[in-house]
């Protein structure tokens, strides 16, 4: 495109925030630019608080006004009300006088090259046949009735408003009267509704007063979801034909009024935008006495019939049914088509007016007992009649929109080396079946519907994954009904403080804060109920009996994320949280009257030290990894409690009890083949759930090593030193010079947002799916996109050489090659020579010099013992040879790709990860930003 498009960017807004940027529409740009998007917006976009119904567009800043008059090259008028049933005064001010105000402002712009005014093809009214791209002249009417005068129209509406105010009419009465006036005035001159009448008058005004300003009017037909860019299927709000798609999919639309063979003229939004851009380039500085008109639609070049849309809708919702509030799939059938107004009136009389008459009689006979029901029923019927009255002209529309000028524009674009792959707007390229089945309807109906009006109980609400889970739901589906968040706190006040400090105040919620501004607190207040409690207790430790009853009555889905993930945890704590806690969550879930499913988040490492392909299969009660019999959870509980009593009887210190209970956990885990207390107790939790699940839909999700976010809410968010990150921190700070492990080992990692997305999709896919079996999903990367330890080392070295950590002395920390110890034997030799031998020397010196080095000796001995214990704990993973099968998870991903789920929003396919890019540009920077101290 020519340099003329590189113009001063202006947005006229009623407010100070560009909330549009936070929409999913800008996702591709956010992914492309990352953190640079804000600076681009700051540099290129100037927000202009204003109002096109006012002189000078209501801009109050004189400096900004002067700047625009001095700098603006092109003005694009997209401001309008598109409501068919708008108040006449509102519609007249915006669509008619607003257009005049925009033109007058444009005339003051010293460098003006073009005014592009976006109108609508339906200024044609109910005309049939071929509708030409020609302007409407002042006073022209569609039915030949003379006398249309804009000053008179303005006077009529002002006099009617004054009359209503003098009568002290209510706001509701004024609104209804002004709506009726708009329809009356429109129909007097041949237009079917206020919207197209006022848009036609806006065109007339512009044509009359344009002067020598190049003026282009672009008339799109019905604008639908995007065809290709920025991604297929983006749409906002329920647009014209989408109300039919939503109504049909939800089972509310059983009949339809209209001619099945009528052509419906639709055009994707991105094609309209492309036609605007090409029209700007083609017409800038092209002075002409005439107004240039472009009709942008499909009815001439690629007509679409109503009957086809009905067929596509039936096939789509049969394959991808809407899930109702009761958790059941809505079964759709064929729609009864009423092909004339006479058949519609008969249908309404028999189906609705006759029962209404019966209800009226019953209401009178029973002393107005059914008064409320009668009025509500009558109101709904009146509403339907008004809607049909408004839309009737389009239900039997016989017009075809000529697009000769638009076709010339397309030809000029092809011949003028305009990138037609980028600025495409030819409707002939659209395959309607593919567009509706795979783009438009999925754009209107998304898996987000599952979350709508859902009540979800989340345990462990301040944990790393739980916070990302909650943020994602609030961001993509603010119409979730309620999130009950269980967290450890003594009371509601402390729970609120903890949730704010540990979740909402974190950078994780930055995108949501930017998107919602001051509305975020209101959303949290409305949608989140904080539940002080503890999953180690009966009824989850919730003391408020009313709240317990409310959750049992309302909760649809329970998500258990509460756990201790410490490999070296005390056995009593890990057993109570990871094993018995899972049982307590299940027992609470059983009491929930509307429960659709329980999602329990475990870990892939319940597999222990197994090699080869590790399948997505459950663990049964008493099953062990080494075949040793005798695992019994009641016995484990007894052994743990007896050991505690023994220690307390001996008056052991807290430190001694903690160490003893840690040792007991490791001992019991290794007895049955698990390497540490964490995975042993998580495995027992899975066993318990599988044993007692009954008929409750139960999904167990097993992520591998969870790392920083890949994309959402922004790349690189992480919290705390997670498994892998202790190595990153140690290496970046120059403290890690050797590492024990097999450099060729595959390290199975998965970004946190992918885990959360898999959770959300698993919920939608398995809700109300009763089964005797537990559904297992292993979410990792080792099968589909493996990464080896040596690759991570290489990326780390590259990163910290390029971006060295600045130490406390203000100097850059230099990192070098790591000494790899490829076996436990080489590790023990290394420790013996490098640390144990000097320690022995220090011990002798300490004894010789009357314990002068006691502090230093004790400190070094403690550190060496700590390292040896750490290596002992992590040894199974340092030489791990297992790869996690993910067949079930892949089926879930396929359902995303083939179904109505937006794979760009609920992505969790590790194959899309470029590990080098992820580590170098996302994970390492995230760890440095959020973890390094």
Automatic annotation (TrEMBL):
Its EC number is 1.2.1.84. Keywords: Lipid biosynthesis, Lipid metabolism, NADP, Oxidoreductase. It catalyses: a long-chain fatty acyl-CoA + 2 NADPH + 2 H(+) = a long-chain primary fatty alcohol + 2 NADP(+) + CoA. GO terms for biological process: long-chain fatty-acyl-CoA metabolic process; suberin biosynthetic process. The keyword Calcium does not apply. One of its GO terms (molecular function) is alcohol-forming very long-chain fatty acyl-CoA reductase activity. Residues 16-276, 458-759 form the Thioester reductase (TE) domain. Pfam families: NAD_binding_4 (PF07993), Sterile (PF03015). The keyword NADP applies. Residues 352-445, 835-933 form the Fatty acyl-CoA reductase C-terminal domain. Catalyzes the reduction of fatty acyl-CoA to fatty alcohols. Belongs to the fatty acyl-CoA reductase family. This is Fatty acyl-CoA reductase. The lineage of its organism: Eukaryota, Viridiplantae, Streptophyta, Embryophyta, Tracheophyta.
């Amino acid at each position: 495109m020519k340099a003329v498009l590189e113009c001063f960017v202006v947005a006229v807004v009623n407010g100070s925030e560009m909330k549009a940027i936070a929409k999913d529409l800008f996702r591709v740009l956010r992914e492309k630019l990352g953190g640079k998007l804000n600076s681009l917006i700051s540099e290129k976009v100037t927000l202009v608080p204003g109002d096109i119904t006012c002189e000078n567009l209501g801009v109050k800043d004189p400096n900004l006004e002067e700047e625009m008059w001095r700098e603006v090259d092109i003005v694009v008028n997209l401001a309008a009300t598109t409501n068919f049933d708008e108040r006449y005064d509102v519609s007249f001010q915006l669509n008619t006088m607003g257009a005049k105000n925009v033109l007058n402002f444009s005339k003051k712009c010293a460098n003006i090259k073009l005014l592009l005014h976006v109108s609508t093809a339906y200024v044609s009214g109910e005309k049939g046949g071929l509708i030409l791209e020609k302007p409407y002249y002042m006073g022209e009417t569609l039915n030949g009735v003379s006398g249309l005068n804009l000053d008179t129209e303005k006077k009529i509406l002002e006099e009617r408003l004054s009359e209503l105010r003098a009568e002290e009419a209510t706001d509701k009465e004024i609104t209804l009267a002004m709506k009726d006036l708009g329809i009356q005035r429109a129909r007097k001159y041949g237009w079917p509704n206020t919207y197209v009448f006022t848009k036609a008058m806006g065109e007339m005004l512009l044509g009359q007063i344009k002067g020598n300003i190049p003026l282009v009017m672009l008339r799109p037909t019905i604008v639908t979801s995007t065809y290709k860019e920025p991604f297929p299927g983006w749409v906002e709000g329920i647009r014209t034909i989408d109300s039919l798609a939503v109504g049909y999919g939800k089972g509310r639309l059983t009949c339809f009024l209209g001619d099945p063979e009528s052509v419906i003229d639709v055009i994707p939004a991105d094609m309209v935008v492309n036609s605007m851009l090409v029209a700007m380039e083609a017409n800038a500085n092209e002075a002409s006495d005439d107004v240039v008109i472009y009709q942008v639609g499909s009815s001439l070049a690629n007509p679409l019939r109503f009957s086809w849309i009905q067929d596509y809708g039936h096939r789509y919702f049969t394959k991808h049914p809407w899930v109702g509030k009761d958790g059941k799939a809505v079964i759709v059938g064929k729609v009864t088509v009423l092909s004339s107004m006479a058949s519609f009136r008969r249908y309404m009389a028999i189906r609705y007016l006759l029962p209404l008459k019966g209800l009226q009689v019953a209401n009178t006979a029973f002393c107005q007992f059914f008064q409320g029901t009668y009025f509500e029923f009558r109101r709904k019927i009146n509403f339907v009649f008004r809607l049909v009255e408004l839309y009737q002209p389009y239900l039997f529309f016989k017009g075809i929109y000529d697009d000769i000028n638009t076709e010339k524009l397309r030809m000029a674009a092809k011949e003028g080396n305009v990138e037609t792959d980028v600025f495409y707007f030819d409707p002939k390229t659209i395959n309607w079946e593919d567009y509706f089945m795979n783009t438009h309807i999925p754009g209107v109906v998304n898996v987000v519907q599952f979350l709508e009006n859902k009540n979800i109980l989340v345990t462990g609400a301040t944990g790393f994954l739980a916070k990302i889970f909650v943020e994602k739901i609030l961001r993509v589906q603010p119409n979730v009904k309620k999130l009950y968040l269980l967290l450890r706190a003594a009371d509601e006040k402390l729970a609120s403080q903890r949730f704010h400090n540990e979740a909402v105040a974190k950078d994780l919620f930055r995108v949501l804060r930017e998107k919602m501004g001051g509305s975020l607190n209101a959303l949290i207040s409305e949608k989140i109920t904080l539940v002080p409690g503890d999953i180690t207790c009966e009824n989850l430790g919730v003391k408020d009996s009313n709240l317990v009853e409310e959750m049992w009555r309302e909760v649809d889905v329970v998500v258990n994320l509460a756990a201790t993930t410490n490999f070296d945890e005390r056995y009593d704590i890990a057993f109570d949280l990871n094993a018995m806690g899972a049982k307590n969550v299940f027992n609470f879930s059983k009491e929930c009257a509307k429960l659709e499913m329980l999602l329990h988040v475990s870990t892939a490492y319940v597999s222990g030290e197994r090699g080869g392909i590790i399948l997505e299969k459950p663990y049964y009660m008493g099953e062990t990894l080494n075949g040793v019999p005798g695992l019994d959870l009641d016995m484990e509980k007894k052994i743990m409690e007896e050991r505690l009593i023994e220690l307390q009887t001996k008056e052991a210190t807290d430190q001694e009890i903690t160490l003893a209970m840690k040792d007991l956990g490791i001992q019991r885990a290794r007895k049955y083949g698990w390497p540490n207390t964490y995975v042993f107790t998580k495995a027992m939790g899975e066993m318990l759930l599988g044993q007692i699940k009954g008929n409750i839909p139960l999904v167990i999700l097993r992520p591998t090593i969870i790392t920083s976010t890949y994309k959402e809410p922004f790349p690189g968010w992480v919290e705390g030193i997670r498994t892998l990150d202790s190595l990153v921190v140690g290496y970046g700070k120059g403290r890690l010079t050797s590492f024990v492990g097999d450099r060729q080992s595959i390290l199975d990692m998965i970004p946190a947002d992918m885990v959360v997305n898999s959770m959300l999709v698993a919920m939608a896919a398995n809700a109300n799916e009763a089964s005797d079996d537990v559904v297992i999903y292993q979410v990792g990367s080792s099968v589909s996109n493996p990464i080896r330890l040596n690759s991570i080392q290489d990326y780390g070295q590259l990163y910290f050489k390029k971006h060295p950590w600045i130490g406390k002395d203000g100097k850059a920390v230099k990192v070098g090659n790591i000494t790899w110890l490829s076996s436990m034997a080489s590790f023990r030799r290394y420790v013996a020579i490098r640390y144990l031998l000097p320690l022995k020397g220090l011990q002798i010196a300490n004894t010789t010099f009357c314990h002068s080095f006691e502090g230093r000796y004790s400190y070094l001995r403690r550190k060496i013992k700590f390292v040896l214990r750490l290596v002992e704990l992590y040894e199974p993973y340092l030489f791990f040879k297992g790869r996690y099968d993910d067949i079930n998870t892949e089926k879930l991903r396929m359902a995303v790709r083939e179904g109505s789920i937006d794979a760009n929003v609920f992505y969790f396919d590790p194959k899309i990860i470029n590990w080098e890019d992820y580590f170098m540009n996302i994970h390492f920077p995230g760890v440095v930003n959020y973890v390094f101290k």
